[in-house]
Amino acid sequence: MALIQCLPALVGSLLPAFCFAEVAETEDWNAKFQATYVWQDKRPFPAAYSGTNSLSAGKEHSYSFTATAALGFRPWAGGELYFNPEAAQGVPLSNLTGLGGFTNGEIARSSGPTLTVYRARLFLRQTWGMSGEQEIVESAANQLVGTVDKRRWVLTAGNLSVLDVFDGNAYSHDPRTQFLNWSLMTHGAYDYAADARGYSWGIALEWYHDDWTVRAGRFIQPKEPNQQALDPHIFQHYGDQLEVEHAHTIGGQPGKLRVLAFRNRAKMSSFQDALNLAARTGGTPDINDVRTGEQVKHGFGLNLEQAMSNNVGLFARASWADGRTETYAFTEIDRSMSGGAVVRGTSWGREQDSMGVALARNGLSKVHRNYLAAGGMGFFIGDGRLNYRPETVFEAFYNLNLTKAAWVSLDWQRIRNPAYNADRGPVNVASVRLHTEF
């Protein structure tokens, strides 16, 4: 790479400071690979009662495995084409029921003990430069090396995850290398459009203008709640999102603030409709009895990341969804607040190691609580009755670097009021994660 030397003047400096801005060569293609194995042990916990969708109160083991190849190609100037074949298998805790914040972000709703190979992503990204200063895009999975304008349009279309574009966070976004809990890898209340593996088809447009970014996108919903088959009618059933991001510096350290709004339209059940029907018939409310027409769900999220030094970063999120309708594609959380810190191991001589601690507090809307208290079952939770309290998740991990491309992580989660029920828990889950990437 060519180097352009610059000599910034620093008032009060005894010696001149030198900095180098790199001009990147263009990468025409790349191939990246990752594999992640997560093993979890849930200890027995006290429970006054259990229901159909309760987390088992007994001892349980769980595991997940994913392997992904990320293949990238530049067909023309400004264009990038990506294909990700993926293999996965796993057995979740309690058949993936009984929690709002599930303990393993790598476990999919379609997981099973048989290794399954499928297409995870197939999408095109097109960038149009609009002048201004330039910055380097580094080589990574689904990202080719290149130099781009700080003022640019970026269009992404195809098969991918909504979280590939929206709600990024440097410290809490990837369960393969960071926090495992679902309510820490993104906004807990963000019911983003996805199939049972977490992917969808759609289109997103981003405008980068120096320190500001605005992005909007529409993605298709599953045909039925939390199922694999997707509904192709993108103008009838969809998930829309709009995000505004601002990059800043505090005390010379970089940070970003993101504000997200989302709106889903799908054939969803209303909790109040289920309660009204049960009141008329004298039965137990059931969302499956009232899934008869289109409903709209909307919500908001606030996302902050802030470096405190070269080795310490903080993050915080807050999200809210209206909670009138059933969870359609993510998990049963209507309100969530989370925050934590990630520290690199440089200060103790382990630069490639990292450790993190975080806390999340999840809640439900009033009508969602009433539905569960009356004996209703959601897709993921339902103890038969409910002594409501917010669900709280504490998580801590340590990533130990073994080789240049391999890490082993030790992770511990403690969850109070699982599925928002004070009559059950607390729950302790210990995890070991093996991860490699190259």
From TrEMBL:
It holds the Pfam family OprB. GO terms for biological process: carbohydrate transport. GO terms for molecular function: porin activity. One of its GO terms (cellular component) is membrane. The keyword Transmembrane does not apply. Keywords: Signal. Residues 1-21 form the signal peptide. It comes from the Bacteria. InterPro entries: Carb-sel_porin_OprB (IPR007049), OprB_sf (IPR038673). Coiled coil: none annotated. Belongs to the OprB family. This is Porin. It comes from Rugosibacter aromaticivorans.
